[in-house]
Here is the input.
Amino acid sequence: MLLPSAHAGMTIDLIDERWRNFAQDILYQESDPRMATFRYRFLPYQTSNDTLAFIAAVMVLNWSKFKSQMTADII
Here is the structure.
């Protein structure tokens, strides 16, 4: 998962039994923790396909809006 996560704009990682070290196979390209929590999702392996598709669609469709709200300049 290291190489694909390094090239991906966002990832959804399905976790089975290794929740204690879930983030070891992702190369984080984001320094802002707010942006990282949106771009890198960790879900249980048993998550249904419909739910995965919904989450992926929300991530892709709402990325620019989320980014603009989280990085807005404060006057």
Residues 2-70 form one domain. Strands lie at 11-15, 40-44. The mean pLDDT is 85. The chain is about 45% helix and 15% strand.
